[in-house]
Specification:
With 121 residues, this protein is mainly β. It is built from no helices and eleven strands.
Amino acid sequence: QVQLVESGGGLVQAGGSLRLSCAASGIILGINAMGWYRQAPGKQRELVATITSGGVTNYADSVKGRFTISSSSGKSMVYLQMNSLNAEDTAVYYCYAELVVGFSGDSYDYWGQGTQVTVSS
């Protein structure tokens, strides 16, 4: 019932920009954190950026100064503004959320299906 729906991926030239969006839907009682991970061919999935419900952000060193993560009021959506893209940013980008979905108050991890970002030179 809980789903993460991503949008905004595509093909861009080096130096260009993209903005990824992710919306969490379903019966959600709380959001502890949301963020973005990516997986390039032949590599392990890695953290790109996360943001907590309190607004605390965390970025991979490789994207600091170029990418900005943000969330909507109410924290039901998360965005990733990607600037100065280069070939090393080519990957499948996955939306991530730690959500409270039960009355017990326990949180669980959820993942989107992924969206392809390809940077051409």
